[in-house]
């Protein structure tokens, strides 16, 4: 699959945002006392990780090196 430079940059940007969300949700899960809320944050982090994995695959298919990106 061929990606334009703009598409590559947009996917890389989206991946960066997903990684920030994953970090934040995991941090929130570790900070809250309520186990249900902690579980909610962990589920959100897991969902964001799935998104990050999908973006990484798209970038790899487009010929972009993604070492350390996901």
Brief overview, please?
Helices cover 77% and strands 0% of the residues. With 70 residues, it is an all-alpha fold. The mean pLDDT is 94.
Overview of the structural elements:
This protein has helices at residues 5-31, 35-61. The protein is built from 2 helices and no strands. The chain is mostly helical and 70 residues long.
Label this structure with key terms:
70 residues; mainly alpha; 2 helices
Measured between the Cα atoms of the first and last residue, the distance is 20 Å
Query: What value does the average pLDDT take?
Result: 94
Radius of gyration equals 14 Å
List the total number of helices. 2
The fraction of residues assigned to DSSP E strands is: under 5%
Basic shape: elongated
Element-by-element helix/strand order: HH
Structural class by SSE content: mainly alpha
**Low-confidence residue ranges:** none
Q: What's the main sheet like?
A: none
State the helicity in percent bands.
over 70%
- Count of DSSP strands: 0
């Amino acid at each position: 699959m061929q990606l334009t430079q703009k598409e590559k940059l947009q996917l890389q940007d989206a991946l960066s945002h997903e990684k920030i969300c994953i970090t934040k949700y995991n941090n929130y899960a570790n900070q809250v006392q309520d186990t249900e809320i902690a579980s909610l944050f962990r589920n959100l982090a897991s969902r964001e990780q799935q998104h990050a994995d999908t973006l990484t695959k798209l970038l790899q298919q487009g010929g972009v090196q993604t070492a350390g990106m996901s």
